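Worked problem 6 (solution included).
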Amino acid sequence: MTGTETVAGTVAEESAAEETVVEAGVTPAVWAGLMLDCPDATELATFYGELTGWGVGGADDGGAWAYLTPPGTALTFGFQRVADYRPPRWPDQEVPQQFHLDFRVADLPAAIARAEELGATQASFQPGGERWRVLLDPAGHPFCLCPPASAADAG
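Solution. The predicted structure is:
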């Protein structure tokens, strides 16, 4: 085939709603997952595995790497140990956050309490007021707990 062709990925096939158009002869990159640097991969994977209910999909014995796999996907949410890890500084950028994770939750106060029980702390700076909460995971990465999307959010 010349020009362009349509390539459907497994997620697109399942949803039958998305297709990727690529140049002929060019293999598209397919998102496989996300890796977070941290001081102990198993510890941080356990935190997020408990927070999301996904559990830890795999880890090495020494805490160098670990991962989660969200149910129904082939994606990995991975963690890798980094020597001399320096956690991001929120909200200043002395050590930039570079990215953060957002999670939708049905009961915001209950989810905050659960995250804190698992080792998260609430950030002192809260730009969302009571609409969402910024927390810091056990390795210092900021993440947000957000209430369910409203109809206004969908538009």
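Discussion: Residues 1-30 form one domain.
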